[in-house]
Amino acid sequence: MDALARQVVYQVFPEAFGGLEGVTEHLDHLAGLGVTTVYLTPIVPAPTDHRYDATDLSAVDPALGGEPALERLLAGLHGRGMHLVLDLVLNHVSDRHPWFRAALAGDPAYRGFFTFLPDGRYQCWKGFRGMPELDLAEGAVLDRLYRGPGSVVERWLDLGVDGLRFDVAQDVGLAVAEDLAARVRERWPRCLLIGEVFGYGGGWCRGFHGTMNYYHQNALLSWLNGEIGAVQANRAVADVREGWGLDGALRSWNMLSSHDTPRLRSALADAGGIDLAQLAQMTLPGVPLVYYGEEVGMEGGADPDNRRPMVWDPARWDRGRLAWTRKLIALRRGSPELMSGDVKVLGDRLPGNALVFLRYTEQPGEAALVVVNAASDPLRAKLLIPYPHWPDGVPLRDALGQAGEVTVRTSSVALDLAPRSGAVYRAVEPLETYRYFKPRNRADA
User: Fold this and answer.
1) Percent of the chain scored above 70 by pLDDT?
2) Helix (H) or strand (E) holding 289
3) 358-387 as b/e, with b when 16 or more CB fall inside 10 Å?
4) Residue 397 confidence (pLDDT)
5) Section 159-182 average pLDDT
6) Neighbours of 207 (CB within 10 A)
7) Distances (CA, A) of 399 to 105, 112, 216, 271, 403
């Protein structure tokens, strides 16, 4: 099974934990949640709180604890078998960065690092003058970023960082992404490379292992808020499978909130909708990403309100949310088909307002039927399942314990789900004297 698809990512805005030492102090909480990988937004020196405008791409900000704090965090993570992914910006720097200051001063060694217009203005990210864009067609820039000895990328990976998430990947470009990935994989073959694609990421896995899957996020939240119907929600799952490819879809990060979007309690109208969103997130192809505090029900609107300090007082936690999150993560990590299986969309053939899909591996019977009913009415329908390895008569039980058992009859089941509820049906062996899934039929037999 692909190790990159077995992850559960937890995103941290370091200031919200009191710096890197604060993250290290709370690793037991993350491990208890079922997290395998911590993803940090930028930890470099910068004039802003978000730190996507670095004044030094290779340093750890002393305000966050400096390099010693990063080394302690890495030791704590690796000692628990966990991993660290850092946020890296290759597209732009701060206008206070020494490279840009030198370019403004006319230094010929740095003038070509940026694109200046005849009137003295310069290319900057989305028009923000404080973020001048690097000229990624300039070989000297690429050498400093990732191609040459002592490059920015080499610096972080030599420290023991396990992966890199590249900001504004669409601005970085596919050619640079592919070149960077090829060079990184030669020396650090296990390094995870994720691109931030704030939209449809189909095709971007040519350069990255996967993307931040904002397409799934938009589809799920829009569906559960009533902005789109089940037809589009189901189609979005197929879109990702087709556009990303199976490996790309499995390795991409499925988030419901992030440092760039409102938190779930602000994005969805009711707790039931949040339950359904999390159920879909943990069972769709892809790596689930939990934004810090979502597991205890933190609130927060648009940036910067979504970056409030982490709530560590258990009296203020939503205990039901924490239990549900842990349950879903445990279900995913205990189900090979949910971590690395393919997907077949089935909800587009049903009436009502349900997201339905089958996850399955090459092993006969290793499959899960996921049904998320967002309607205010029960879902009662016969569903044909074009899957050859659930024999007639095999019982399917809801791994969540919310829906009743159903039985496969000629590759179909009679669904009966309550309003605003979900189920993850998996086959069971109910008989002592008969095996539905015989060892001789296994793919590795």
Assistant:
1) 100
2) strand 287-291
3) bbbbebbbbbbbbbbbbbeeebebebebeb
4) 97
5) 95
6) 22
7) 64, 58, 23, 21, 9
pLDDT digits (tens, 9 = 90+) for 214-270: 999 999 999 999 999 999 999 999 999 999 999 999 999 999 999 999 999 999 978
Would you say the C-alpha torsion 236, 238, 244, 248 has a positive or negative sign?
positive
pLDDT attached to residue 5: 80
Find the Cα–Cα–Cα–Cα dihedral 240, 246, 252, 256, rounded to 10°. 50
Q: Please state the rounded mean pLDDT for residues 288-313.
A: 96
SS3 87: strand
167 noted as active-site residue: yes
* Type and span of the H or E element at 254: strand 253-255
Task: Give SS3 for 413.
Answer: strand
> Which position among 95, 135, 154, 167 bears the catalytic label?
167
In sequence order, the 6+-apart residues with CB closer than 8 A to the CB of 234 are 345, 346, 347, 348, 355, 356, 357
Please confirm, yes or no, whether 196 is among the known catalytic residues: yes
Catalytic residue among 15, 61, 133, 196: 196
